[in-house]
Amino acid sequence: MHIDRRAVVFGAGLAVASAGAGLWAWRHLGLRARLFNPFRADHFELAALPGLTDASGAAVPGFSSADIVGKSVYINAFASWCPFCRAEHEALMEFARSGARIYGAASLDQPEKTLHFLRENGNPYFRLGMDRHGFLFRALGARGIPAHFVFAPAPRLTFAAQGPMDFAQLRAKILPALA
């Protein structure tokens, strides 16, 4: 039996290239979050962002599905590196100042970068949880951030939208969905 060296080298190169492409897709396309997502609208837990405090100096807690069950809540998924999230941040600050309670999900972000962003630009969030792998917003059907979700009452999702909103849009879309 004769083994063709070129076929062996080609096969080995193809295997290495396939493994590299698979690893790249796993890391950069969020395949882990899409294929093995442990979150559902009625079952999730987001840890608090260490070091984040409210205006009184109290730690801002994370949140879970158990914390919101039976309540009407607005969740905003964002990331410090996202230009659209940065653009909408002032509208969220104004929405919070108007009395809205916003639950934040810091998605696909590093905790230290999220903390720096919120300390620099203000914290509009009543509660904030870290969603480092994007499990929550993907479990709720979003494909990108910023994303907006209203549960009324939780775990019933009554409103979902992607993309930045200004203050007028927040008032016109989120407030009626919470009622």
From TrEMBL:
SUPFAM superfamilies registered for this protein in UniProt: Thioredoxin-like
This chain's protein is named Redoxin domain-containing protein
Coiled-coil annotation: which residues?
none
Species lineage: Bacteria, Pseudomonadati, Pseudomonadota, Alphaproteobacteria, Hyphomicrobiales
Which species is this UniProt entry from?
Candidatus Rhodoblastus alkanivorans
Top-rank taxon, per record = Bacteria
Q: Which PANTHER family match?
A: PROTEIN DIPZ, THIOL:DISULFIDE INTERCHANGE PROTEIN DSBE
List the InterPro entries hit by this protein, alphabetically.
Redoxin, Thioredoxin-like_sf, Thioredoxin_domain, Thioredoxin_ResA/DsbE_sf
Q: Which Pfam families match?
A: Redoxin
Residues of the Thioredoxin domain:
54-179
